[in-house]
Amino acid sequence: MALRDAEPLPDLQTKLSSPSAMRWMAALGAGLLLGLLAAGAFVVAEARNDTWNQAEQASANLALALEREIARNIALVDRSVQGAIRALQRPGLDKAEPEVRHMALFDRTAGAEYLGSLLVLGPTGEATAVSTALTPPSYDFADREYFTVHRDQPETGLFVSRPLRSRVGHPGFSIVLSRRVADREGLFAGVVAGAVQLAYFNDLFSKINLGRGGSVTLLSTAGRVLTRTPSRDEDVDRDLSGTSTFQRFLSAPSGSFVGKATLDGVTRLYTFRHVADLPLVLSVAVSVDEVFAAWERKAIVMALILGTLCAALVVLCALFRQEMRRRLFVERQLIEAAHTDGLTGLANRRHFDEVLAHEGRRAAREESALSLLMLDLDCFKAFNDRYGHQRGDACLRAAAGVLARAVRRPGDLAARYGGEELAVILPNTDEAGALHLAETIRTGIEALGWEHEGNPAKVVTVSVGCATLHSRAMSQGHEVESLIAKADQALYEAKRLGRNRAVSSSDLPKSPLPPSLPDEERRLAAVAAYHSEDHCGHSEALDRIARLTAGLLGAPTSVISLVGRDEQFFVGRYGLDAVSTPREVAFCAHTIAGDLPLIVPDATTDPRFERNPLVTGAPGIRFYAGMPLVSPEGQHHLGALCVLDWTPRAGLDAAQRALLADLAALTVDELERQRVSRPASNPARIANETENSSCEPSQATAKRI
Q: Which residues are in the GGDEF domain (predicted)?
């Protein structure tokens, strides 16, 4: 925006009452308000973080202490079990006196707190010894899980059972720690099992005050609840293996997370640890509400103080709110109007240029790909001429709607480039992605089904040109203007090849060999019908058209060619002596592959022609522009009306292209007149070879005049 000329300085009152000053004052008040709120929020947030960190640290320390205590006592029980196993393996113990045998088996049980009974089971599950009496009970323990596990799975080491009620000793719930007994041959000889009363864990956990909603839970790694505080009988041996909370317990040896409890639905901070190398998991859970209860009380007090301090600022900001909102609304409308095309609702050309330049700089900085789609509604001038401009505007809006629905990413931009041309900017999009979107848009516009008699497809269609600058090209300093030029060149190629298609700049023809044409034999037969037996003779009428074409387009040379199987024949020429060239080096052989003019601004930079002998040698073609000659019957591409220059040129503008097309139509009329006015010739002559004609052999390359 241009700066205004200098003006006299206004007085202080005018300054203060100006809209700009009002905005500054409102911004200042809002800034102070936000500053106070931010400071208060920072203090409250820091207090909350400190509270949370303290809760996490306290839970972690408590879990560690409990884990070590539980591991120590279970280790004592395990040593008692292992001691009994070693005693059983002593020779002659089975022959000792009952008191001696009892003492040898169970002398290590005294140091194990809350140890219930220590049982020795035989290979069939019968009790052979018990720590609480000299005479073992007559119970059969073959149905107990800890017995069947060791019997059926010899590799099992220390096994921790699910909670169960003991058949001997303490009547309450216990867990059993057991190990397998093997004879000298390694065969199953029984089980030694030690019971640990759950009362031990309940007493241990009850000494801990975790506040309202807190809990301590001991689980097996199979997901069974062994004990929990606060304790409920229905929680004992409850299966939690399928819950998300338990799965988190198994994910690491220790850790913490926030989750909702399966047992009571309370959201807690869970701190868990696996108990030594035992199949046990200890969970210390603190209610999140309880953790933040004290902090919430402090936060309420802080909020009241901040509310009182901010009240005056709020009143001040409210005085300016309506004015500021109105002005912001107007500014947004102006910005939107400046960036939006009024007819289609897409971005306008100005906004397109701004965004493309910005994305080009960003792509170069980030070394990312940038793609561009250029779209042009096919034969749209004919649509406007036939159906009127109002319907043409409606058609443009419908096509723009297809673009708006297809271009969904926030960073992409659909714009009206000008007239019936549309464009799409696609940051961070490679060529494959851009072509996929181009095909989506093309099929979407065709699917609208708008009638268009002037279009070969009979409905409104679109041609799309796609170009992509990759990260390497962007880093080498290529301008975004080259991206537009490549996309426009691809768009022109899409139209030249028949419209209603998407073409990428990388798909542009690069082969020096002329492309193969469909239905070539019929085309050659049509060419033969227009070519006289004496093809070396001059056609003054066609020479005049060539001379007229060269003069109107400012070129030194113009020729009218018919492209045969192996040669192209110049049936009209100006500024060139040759009567034919081999088809394999003929520019016109490339021209007849499309419907629109083929324009080569500089043949030395075009991969199709840079090594062509007509470019590297005489006559040294640099610029070429040719329009296909299409027969009235069968719509066969016979050859081309073209102009040549020996220096590179910028190309042809729209008016010159239209003039070349009109002159090509005049050429076809003259060829048709000559065909009708002469006797029928042999159609196979030019379709095969010209070596049997009566003229002298033609020059292989053209000569400069």
A: 368-507
349-507 belongs to CATH 3.30.70.270 = yes
Measuring CA to CA, how many Å separate 52 from each of 258, 294, 701?
11, 11, 88
Q: Enter the DSSP assignment of 699.
A: P
pLDDT exceeds cutoff 50 at 332: yes
Distance, in Å, from the CA atom of 61 to the CA atom of 254, rounded to the nearest integer, reads 12
Mean pLDDT score of the chain? 84
Say whether pLDDT at 698 is over 50: no
Residue 192 φ/ψ, nearest 5 degrees:
-110, 125
561 by Cβ neighbours in 10 Å (0-12 / 13-18 / 19+) ranks as buried
What distances in angstroms separate CA 417 from CA 89, 192, 351, 377, one per listed residue? Answer: 95, 88, 10, 12
Pick the closest to residue 437 from 511, 373, 381 (CA basis): 373
Strands (E) in 379-459, as ranges, are: 413-418, 421-427
> Which helix (H) or strand (E) covers residue 646, if one does?
none
Q: What percent of the chain has a predicted confidence (pLDDT) above 90?
A: 40
Distance, CA of 388 to CA of 457 (rounded, Å): 19
Instruction: State the DSSP code for 453.
Output: T
**pLDDT at res. 108:** 62
Quote the crossing angle between the two packed helices 654-677 and 540-553, to the nearest 10°. Answer: 180
Please give the Cα distance from 269 to 283 (Å, whole number). 10
Assess whether pLDDT exceeds 90 at residue 118: no
520-688: same fold as 19-339? yes
pLDDT at position 507 is: 79
Distance, in Å, from the CA atom of 621 to the CA atom of 624, rounded to the nearest integer, reads: 7
Q: Which fold has domain 19-339?
A: Beta-Lactamase (3.30.450)
The reply to whether the predicted model has a pTM over 0.85 is no
Sign for the pseudo-dihedral over CA of 317, 318, 320, 326: positive
62-76, 416-430, 441-455, 470-484: least confident range: 470-484
Q: Which of 698, 441, 666 is nearest to 564 (CA)?
A: 698
| Whether 230 contacts 20, CB under 8 Å | no
* Token pair for 170: 């303490």
Q: How far apart are CA 559 and CA 587, in angstroms?
A: 11
* Domain residue extents for the chain: 19-339, 349-507, 520-688
Cα 69 to Cα 201, 239, 255, 375: the distances in Å are 10, 25, 19, 76
**Which residue, 409, 470, 380, is CA-closest to 424?**
409
Quick one: which of 139, 77, 126 has its CA closest to 106? 77
pLDDT in tens, 489-510: 899 889 888 899 999 988 777 7
Q: For the residues of 168-235, what is the DSSP string, one character each?
A: SS--SEEEEEEEEEE-TTS-EEEEEEEEEEHHHHHHHHHT----TT-EEEEEETTSBEEEEES--GGG
List 165's β-bridge partners, or say none: 173
pLDDT of res. 315: 76
What does the block give as tokens for 293?
């209860």
pLDDT over 80 at 682, yes or no: no
What pLDDT does residue 472 have?
60
Least confident of 310-319, 345-354, 541-550: 310-319
